[in-house]
Design goal:
The complex is a heterodimer of chains A (about 220) and B (about 1200). Chain A has helices at about 1-20, 75-80, 180-185, and strands at about 40, 60-65, 65-75, 85-90, 95, 100-110, 115-125, 140-145, 165-170, 190-200, 205-215. Chain A is mainly beta and about 220 residues long. Chain A has a single domain (about 25-215), classed as Sandwich (Jelly Rolls), CATH 2.60.120. In chain A, the strands form two sheets. In chain A, strands 1, 4, 5, 7, 8 and 10 form a six-stranded antiparallel sheet that branches. In chain A, a hairpin with a 2-residue loop joins strand 2 (about 60-65) and strand 3 (about 65-75). Chain B has nine domains: about 5-175, no CATH class; about 185-275, Immunoglobulins (Immunoglobulin-like, Sandwich), CATH 2.60.40.10; about 280-380, Immunoglobulin-like; about 390-490, Immunoglobulin-like, CATH 2.60.40; about 490-625, Four Helix Bundle (Hemerythrin (Met), subunit A) (Up-down Bundle), CATH 1.20.120; about 630-770, Four Helix Bundle (Hemerythrin (Met), subunit A), CATH 1.20.120; about 780-820; about 835-1050, no CATH class; and more. Chain B is about 45% helix and about 20% strand. Chain B has 24 helices and 40 strands. In chain B, the strands form twelve sheets. In chain B, strands 11-10-13-16-15-14-17-18 form an eight-stranded antiparallel sheet, with no helix packed on it. In chain B, strands 2, 4, 5, 7, 8 and 9 form a six-stranded mixed sheet that branches. In chain B, helix 15 (about 715-725) packs across helix 16 (about 730-795) and helix 20 packs antiparallel against helix 21 (about 1095-1110). The radius of gyration of chain B is 59 Å and the shape is elongated. The N and C termini of chain B lie far apart (about 150 Å). The chains are: A mainly beta (about 220), B alpha+beta (about 1200). Chains A and B meet through helix 1, strand 3, strand 8, strand 9 and helix 3 of A and strand 10, strand 18 and strand 29 of B. Strand 8 (about 140-145) of chain A pairs parallel with strand 29 of chain B.
Chain lengths: ~220, ~1200
């Protein structure tokens, strides 16, 4: 009986807990039928010519390293090294309320490229009437968080990624943001998880279990 | 009792019996029905205990109710009146006669009528059909119900075994029995039950079931984010247990499941998904062995490559994303078990690592999942000690009375344990090593050794071989290193001087050959340069090869350790380093150059070759003086050695106790001094003849000195002193020694007086020459000032369309030509920038992104380095060709402050094409972050030179940082660094405060913090049309022309700004110059005084190279040249203290070309690559 009660309680609470944790729709890349659901990987708008072929380098591996649904960002030497543009994905915008703090966590491994993984804050682009499901082209960037660092050095413009799976996270904004940061954060209405495979050598950056959670502040509807 | 009443009682009892029977039948039917239904439910659903008790209670309740009702019905008694009423109602023909009679009879007082009525006969009850009183319909229905109930009770027995049905009935009737339910099928086993599995993993759900054939087996799935579904797995086919399974493709959410077999259902199970086990971090706290004295450090063991000294104790700390059960770090040589700490997701363990290669970490969490990763620790081997000889660098011939003197530097990566000096004697049978001295460096990592031995016997040819042995402080396996043999040869002074003369002759021949070869090569180059079109590549190649040979020969001559060139070495060194490689480079490039470039290059090669010839000729002319100077210096050094030697023998004689034999070494030394004195007299006479033509007075002085030495019988007295020592007559020997010493000192004073006189005369000549040169330089400087003033006058013209502008430009052009001829450089900065075509294209929609950037730890203290950037014609081509605006790529702020000083070679602005004005987009993105930290001193050192190398457009991407290119597409961002303290050209947004010389395209913006030290100067920009809306007012200084609506609280400069010369005082360059001047002064004084300078000359040369490297930004060469200077100074000290030794009398020609000795000097590499080539050669030289 006691077990049944525990089970019932768990079953009641778990969905609620899940619903309130990951703000991303498909952070595990396991959405049936469309494993890249909730992620932008085709860039074909004006000003994005460097990324017209980006989609060719983005896929989801159904099964690798004992994991299922793993985002794979491939980059050859020209794409990731030198002054290459990198291979990237952006999550669909997630509506937030200004004043919150958030944590982005994910697992990664790489056979060559490093990464710049961060969260970007967006606001409505001037002239766009607010609506519930904005496209990324309808919003405008105003903030970039610190990077997620997988290596030992917690600083720099890139993070190297080891050949073994590693889990890392970043919480933003900092507890005492600068006045410049406060100004930009006050305008932030959406969050986008931005993952780029860049620097390092030719190879594939594997990403899994991307979670964006709110850890403080007012919540959006 | 009357018969009537008896009949009525009988009828009453009959009615009671009928009613009781009816209740019993209904009750029985109800009980049987409830029992049957309960048994049926139990058969289908298998009551739990509660259900069984409830069913049994219901049956018992119905039974009890029926019995109570039956008893109550049976116990009831009807009165005669009630029975009469019932009969009257059932039989109306009685016409109330029966009830009336019973009521009248019951009255105690009867009236007459009642009496009369009672007299009548009672109604005949016997004729009545009493069965009419029975409720036949109810009885029939009751029995029918009972029959149906019984049928219900019996029916299941027809499709289920009677035992099964009976078991169900008994389970219902006796709920407290342990009788199990009877099932048609049964789920025996379920796998995996309640389990945690990896998210996205497939999960195999299986069960084993048994039961009646045909019973279905199914699986219920209830995902938390979806609806319930049932999967039919099949039916039981055999009597025994059968397996059934289902593969869940991907477990993505919490899922409940239950197997069913027939009428049996397994308990509900729960599958919980979770991410795989992964390492958040793995750190290694490395504690090196004590003898290494390395600080413990903690590093990230998953990325980078961290060296670990052998024998280190390493404590690993792994942080995972789930609680750990166990873990280990291991390779083939070591293993550390990781045990969970108070934080269950963290495991720790330590071990001693001898070799960290191949280490990997394995971890298992409490759910049984595992993770593994290779660690990136690499071995750091303990290297054996290294011994670097400071002096001598080559085998040395020891002059008379000279002792071997060795200086060295021993180093070890962790510490030196012992040091010794051995004398090595090779015989046919064996090699004997005798330890002459030992030292205890006490674990120091660097130890400078200095040892002086006893002078060997003179006038005998003897080779002494030594070696230095160093052992490190490693306690378990100490490592030993030994130097190469250090050789000293003992030769007579006359023989040594003869060698020197021979060397001089060879050097003179070599220098003559060099002059001849250079003249021939000029003759070879001239016709080629005059008509480059007809010149064949092979001819240019021949000229280049000849030039290369000249350089090689000059290098060998300059690097000869006997220093045959003396002070002329500086001239040849300079040629070797500068003009000679440039000449080769130009000659090599000519055949591959475009036709129109070959002419100028050929002329350039000729200029360089002529410069080389002129310098070599100068050296050739100075060779005689140098050789004379050196011979005189050698002669005077010999006299100095005689004085020193005689002083030493006298002092030793004074210490000898009477009555013992004098040491043979002392006797020999005194005897050798006699022989050396004879040689000195001979040398004086020979030198007198040699210098007679140039300096008759000195020739006479030498003859006088020789005669005086002979007259005073100094050599004979020395021989007598030796004999007295041998015969133990020490007082007599001492008298003779004192006499000869006094006579030698007198001779020395005589020659020293000449030295001083000669030096003063030469110094005066030099001062006069320096004053004349200074006056010439001053004239050139004044000319330069005038030209720059003219340039500024032109540049400050606001209206550049004025006709006067063209006239002035012509004038300036002429001035510029004159300036080039005067070998002056034009001022940089403002004068390098091209005319900027004004776009006046303002972008109103500018949005700013703030980036939260973590600066790389320690980058604020990074030392500034320098980078040379030569101009390339391709830059101009690209600048001109820009057509459309290029898209940008991924951009971010830099995490390291700019620590590179970029020195650019700028274009003559007349070379620059017209810069296209690209159309601006409708919106522009700015990127800004908080200013990074950087030490002020390094920041200043990293300020770039102003540049006019630029591009019209660029695919902006990667770090936002100030680079070596100006850009005219307004793609610059505010960034997170203050602008360099120099002029900035191009187009941009508003950004940060700095010295700008370009145009803003921003319609609005905020001036953020930047360079606060705006120099007072004036740019050439004229005011442009347009207005820039400032977002909040910043206290910034006005620079450049700006938009016509601009304003500032501090006005810009209104006239020509002051000159900004580099501050010499206190900087590295100034300090180095001061050191070099001191060394040069010392060298000059010593040289003028004919005092041997040893390697002081090399020290001066190295210092000058340091200065050049500092001035031209070759920072990496500075340290090496400084090391060379220090080594040369040490060598000079050793040489000066070891008598007549290595300076003039090296044992053999072992000199190497300068290129081998000086990694910092490069061969034929363009200036901007010399640093890299230098590093390459340095690496080669350091290779084992």
């Amino acid at each position: 009986m006691k077990n049944i009660l525990v089970l019932l309680l768990t079953l009641l609470l778990l969905p609620a807990a899940r619903a309130s944790s990951n703000l991303l729709e498909n952070g595990s890349f396991e959405s049936h039928g469309d494993p890249l659901k909730g992620w932008k990987f085709k860039y074909d708008k004006e000003g994005e010519s460097w990324y017209f072929d980006n989609y060719k380098n983005v896929k989801v591996e159904p099964r690798i390293d004992g994991r299922s649904g793993v985002l794979a960002l491939f980059g050859d030497q020209n794409t990731v090294a030198g002054a290459g543009q990198g291979t990237k994905v952006d999550s669909f915008p997630v509506e937030v309320k200004p004043g919150g703090r958030y944590r982005l966590s994910l697992s990664a491994r790489s056979t060559g490229p490093g990464t710049r993984t961060l969260v970007e804050g967006y606001q409505w682009r001037p002239g766009v009437k607010p609506h519930p499901n904005p496209d990324i082209s309808e919003v405008r960037k105003c903030f970039k968080s610190e990077l997620v660092y997988f290596g030992g050095q917690k600083g720099g413009t890139f993070s190297s990624v080891s050949r073994a799976w590693q889990n890392a996270s970043v919480t933003f904004p900092s507890e005492k943001p600068s006045p410049l940061a406060v100004d930009k954060l006050s305008k932030m209405e959406f969050l986008v998880v931005h993952i780029v495979a860049i620097q390092g050598g030719e190879g594939t950056l594997y990403i899994d279990d991307v979670e964006l959670e709110q850890v403080e502040g007012p919540r959006a509807k | 009792m009357s018969p009537l009443r008896e009949n009525l009682d009988t009828i009453g009892r009959t009615l009671v019996r009928w009613r009781t029977g009816l209740i019993v039948v209904i009750g029985a039917a109800a009980v049987v029905t409830v029992a049957s239904l309960s048994a049926l439910v139990d058969l289908a659903a298998h009551f739990a205990r509660t259900g069984r008790v409830a069913a049994a209670a219901l049956i018992a309740a119905i039974t009890a109710a029926a019995l109570i009702a039956a008893f109550r019905a049976a116990a009831r008694r009807f009165s005669n009146v009630a029975i009469s009423a019932t009969l009257e109602r059932a039989f109306p023909e009685l016409d109330n006669r029966l009830i009336n009679r019973i009521q009248f009879e019951d009255r105690p007082r009867k009236d007459a009528l009642e009496t009369a009525y009672l007299a009548l006969p009672p109604p005949a009850l016997g004729d009545l059909d009493l069965s009419t009183l029975k409720n036949k319909r109810a009885h029939r229905q009751a029995w029918l119900g009972l029959t149906a109930a019984l049928l219900l009770l019996a029916a299941p027995a027809f499709w289920a075994p009677p035992a099964v049905w009976a078991n169900a009935l008994l389970r219902v009737l006796n709920p407290f029995s342990s009788r199990p339910p009877t099932l048609l099928a049964r789920v025996l086993e379920v796998s995996p039950g309640n389990a945690v599995r990896l998210q996205g993993e497939p999960v195999l759900l299986s069960c084993r079931a048994e039961g009646r054939r045909g019973q279905p087996v199914s699986l219920e799935l209830m995902p938390s984010d979806g609806s319930r579904s049932v999967v039919k797995l099949g039916a039981l086919a055999n009597p025994g247990a059968e397996p059934f399974s289902f593969n869940l493709d991907s477990l993505t959410t919490i899922t409940r499941y239950r197997f069913r077999a027939g009428d049996d259902a397994a308990p509900l199970c729960l599958l919980t998904p979770r991410p795989p086990l992964a390492f958040s971090s793995v750190s290694a706290a490395i504690e090196p062995p004590a003898y290494t004295r390395l600080e413990p450090r903690t590093v990230d063991a998953l990325t980078g490559e961290t060296p670990v000294p052998a024998g280190s104790t390493v404590r690993f700390r792994a942080t995972c994303n789930f609680p750990l059960a166990a873990g280990s770090v291991s390779n083939t040589e070591a293993q550390a078990q990781l045990t969970p700490t108070s934080d269950p997701a963290v495991g720790e363990g330590s071990t001693v690592i001898t070799n960290p290669a191949g280490l990997r970490i394995d971890a298992r969490d409490t759910d049984g999942f595992t993770a593994a990763a290779p660690l990136t620790l690499i071995p750091l081997l303990d290297q054996p000690p290294q011994i670097q000889l400071v002096a001598p660098l080559a085998p040395v011939v020891l002059g008379p009375g000279s002792a071997p003197h060795i200086q060295w530097l021993a180093t070890d990566d962790y510490g030196l344990g012992a040091m010794s000096l051995e004398q090595v004697e090779e015989t046919r049978e064996a090699t004997n090593r005798t330890v002459l001295a030992t030292w205890n460096p006490a674990g120091q990592r660097e130890w400078a050794g200095d040892w002086t031995g006893d002078p060997p016997p003179t006038n005998t040819t003897l080779t002494l071989s030594f070696r230095i042995v160093a052992t490190d402080a490693r306690p378990d396996l100490p490592q030993t290193a030994a130097s190469a043999p250090i050789l000293f040869q003992s030769r007579g002074a006359e023989a040594a001087l003869e060698d020197s003369r021979k060397t001089d002759a060879e050097s003179r021949d070599t220098l003559d050959a060099l002059v001849r070869m250079q003249a021939e090569n000029i003759a070879r180059t001239e016709p080629l340069a005059a008509d480059p079109v007809r010149a064949r590549p092979a001819q240019w190649k021949e000229a280049a090869e000849s030039q290369r040979l000249i350089r090689q020969t000059a290098g060998r001559l300059s690097a000869d350790p006997r220093r045959p060139l003396g002070a002329l070495k500086t001239i040849v060194d300079r040629l070797w380093q500068d003009e000679m490689p440039k000449a080769i480079d130009v000659l090599v490039r000519i055949p591959d150059s475009e036709a129109q470039a070959q002419g100028p290059l050929g002329r350039q090669a000729l200029i360089l070759e002529n410069r080389i010839l002129e310098a070599l000729s100068r050296a050739q002319q100075g060779m005689t003086a140098v050789q004379e100077h050196r011979e005189i210096t050698g002669l005077l050094a010999l006299l100095d050695a005689l004085v020193t030697g005689q002083k030493q023998t006298r002092d030793t004689t004074k210490t000898l106790p009477a009555g013992i034999a004098a040491p043979p070494a002392l006797v020999n030394r005194q005897d050798a001094l006699s022989g050396n004195t004879v040689e000195f007299i001979t040398a004086c006479r020979r030198e007198a003849q040699s210098v007679r033509k140039g300096d008759a007075a000195f020739s006479d002085l030498l003859l006088k000195t020789a005669a005086q030495a002979e007259t005073q019988q100094i050599a004979a007295d020395m021989t007598r002193a030796a004999e007295a020592l041998e015969s133990q007559s020490f007082p007599a020997a001492l008298v003779l020694q004192e006499k000869t010493l006094a006579e030698l000192v007198a001779l020395q004073d005589q020659l020293t007086a000449w030295r001083v006189q000669d030096a003063e005369a030469k110094a005066e000549e030099l001062q006069q020459a320096a004053a004349e040169a200074g006056a010439k330089i001053e004239k050139l400087r004044n000319l330069q000032a005038k030209i720059v003033a003219s340039m500024r006058e032109v540049d400050t013209q606001k209206d550049k369309s004025d006709k006067a502008y063209d006239e002035l430009m012509e004038e300036v052009s002429t001035v510029k030509t004159n300036m080039a001829e005067a070998l002056l450089n034009i001022a940089k900065d403002l004068h390098i920038f091209p005319e900027l075509p004004v776009g006046n294209d303002l972008v109103e929609d500018i949005f700013q992104i703030y980036e939260d950037m973590t600066q790389v730890p320690g980058s604020d203290k990074a030392k500034a380095t320098e980078l040379g950037l030569q101009k390339e014609d391709s830059i101009l081509g690209l600048l001109e060709k820009a057509k459309g605006r290029m898209d940008d790529m991924e951009m971010w702020l830099t995490a390291k402050p700019d620590a590179v000083k970029r020195n650019t070679e700028n274009f003559d602005k007349n070379e620059m094409p017209k810069i296209p004005v690209l159309p601006m987009p409708s919106e522009l993105e700015d990127l800004i972050g908080d200013l990074q930290k950087q030490e002020e001193a390094e920041k200043k050192k990293a300020d770039d030179s102003a540049t006019n190398q630029g591009s019209a457009d660029m695919p902006a991407g990667w770090d936002v940082a100030e680079g070596e290119f100006a850009n005219f597409s307004a793609k610059g961002k505010s960034g997170n660094e203050a602008p360099d303290h120099n002029e900035q050209n191009g187009r941009s947004l508003v950004g940060r405060q700095g010295m700008a010389n370009g145009e803003t395209t921003a319609g609005s913006g905020k001036i953020n913090a930047g360079d606060n030290n705006i120099e007072a100067r004036r740019t050439r920009d004229s005011a442009q049309g347009g207005q820039v809306q400032e977002e909040g007012h910043a206290d910034a200084k006005a620079t450049g022309g700006g938009k016509s609506s601009g304003y500032a609280e501090e006005a810009g400069m209104g006239g020509a700004g002051p000159r900004r010369d580099a501050a010499m005082e206190g900087n590295d360059l100034g300090l180095q110059a001061m050191l070099r001047r001191d060394a040069e002064s010392l060298y000059a004084k010593a040289s003028l005084m004919h005092v041997r300078t040893g390697a002081l000359e090399d020290a001066v040369t190295a210092m000058r190279r340091v200065e050049d490297a500092l001035a031209t930004g070759r920072i990496q060469q500075v340290r090496e040249f400084q090391k060379q200077a220090v080594a040369a100074l040490k060598r000079a000290r050793t040489e000066l203290s070891s008598g007549l030794s290595s300076e003039a009398l090296p044992a053999d020609f072992t000199g190497r070309p300068t290129a081998d000795q000086t990694a910092g000097v490069t061969d034929e590499a363009p200036a901007e690559y010399r640093e890299l080539v230098s590093e390459y050669f340095k690496a080669l030289n350091q290779a084992p």
